[in-house]
Recover the amino acids of this structure.
């Protein structure tokens, strides 16, 4: 699935990335169909989620304290078991 998860990154790394200045997004427990038009990097402040790639029963799971990179073009379902609160940023679109 190519989702990269770094568990408990250092506060130095988070500061270097500027994570706390990124926009925030949150959602209640439930299932959400998502398509990532650009690569997203996010840092979970709260919550737990299993991500299933479209058409697959395999999943990756991440939770509070994880820094996650989601690849561009991923079509998936987020199965949120605990309220999600995260900082996120999208890579700028690339021009042809």
């Amino acid at each position: 699935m190519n989702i990269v998860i770094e568990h408990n990154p250092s506060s130095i790394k988070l500061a270097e990335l500027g994570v706390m200045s990124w926009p925030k997004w949150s959602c209640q427990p439930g299932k959400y169909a998502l398509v990532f038009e650009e690569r997203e990097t996010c840092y979970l402040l709260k919550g737990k989620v299993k991500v299933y790639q479209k058409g697959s029963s395999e999943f990756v799971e991440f939770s509070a304290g994880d820094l996650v990179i989601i690849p561009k073009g991923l079509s998936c379902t987020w199965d949120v078991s605990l309220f999600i609160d995260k900082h996120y940023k999208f890579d700028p679109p690339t021009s042809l």
Observations:
- The longest strand covers residues 75-90.
